[in-house]
Amino acid sequence: MNPSENKALYRRFIEEVFNQGRLDRVGQLLAPSYVFHDAPPGTPSGPDGVKQTVTMFRDAFPDLHIAFEDQVAEGDKVCSRTVMHGTHRGGIFGVPPSGRTVAMPGMTMVRIADGRIAESWVRNDVQGLMNQLGAQPS
After folding, report:
1. Which CATH class is domain 3-132?
2. Is residue 81 classed as helix, strand or coil in its secondary structure?
3. Is the pTM of this model over 0.90?
4. Residue 117 to residue 3: CA distance in whole angstroms
């Protein structure tokens, strides 16, 4: 796949899996040996970890939508700058629902192999999210 196809694959992953909650697409879009390098502690390895993460965020933010701000690709890697928007309707990270609307910026790099996402490195502004939810540091 070329860099343009790789970018389209990652956009499709975000749209179908995160924005639409289509967990049935995970097996089609992620390699069976997928590695989530920056998974939250306790997250299962492989595609199951992604399913757990998507479920956690969509339960907390049922109207979750990730928008792309920038995206670049070279070779088998794609880097994306995104913003997750949503309304806090369910508990997350020990914070009960607040009804607040939030925006969490993030950056992700993925590696594509054989037409699937093989690895990802994710950096989201979780501290900024917690501040928006009114969570106090422990």
Report:
1. alpha beta
2. strand
3. yes
4. 13
